[in-house]
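Support reply, case 0932

Customer input (verbatim):
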Amino acid sequence: MHKISALPTAQVQAYRQGAPDGYGNPPERAISNGEGNPCRHCLTYIPKGKEMLVLAHRPFPATQPFAETGPIYLCVEHCQRYEDLTNLPEALTASPNYLIKGYGSDDRIVYGTGIITPQAELQNAAGDIFARADVAYIHIRSASNNCYHARIDRA
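Our regenerated output:
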């Protein structure tokens, strides 16, 4: 099984303290309606009525043509970073399909790796993408909205 990596705790803490998002804006605060607000740190759904951060996230070290930026949610309150190596996180169990695509060590899309895969086939599809030596990591995104969910690293 390949490792599903949530956002690093240090980055999440910075956002909670008001660090600028991918567009240079401070994170917005909102209240979860309990439907479809997955925290990208604990990879669970933020409960209804709980405060959350909404911000533009760029999961790349620098801006460049392939550095996609999009909206994400984070728990405002402390949460434990997802670290389970055996189970799929709650935040990846609600949708039937996900868009996954491989990136090279230069943080650019490796063409020919992007696929929409059923949730039940996520690990197998990641293994097929990792069969390419030029793939350093994989992003998991919403198949319907293209929102970033998590990263997959080689096992």
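We compared this against your earlier run and they match. Two observations from our side: The beta strands are 3-5, 28-31, 51-57, 70-75, 97-103, 115-118, 137-142, 148-153. The chain has two domains: 3-75, 90-153. Please reopen the case if you see a mismatch on your end.
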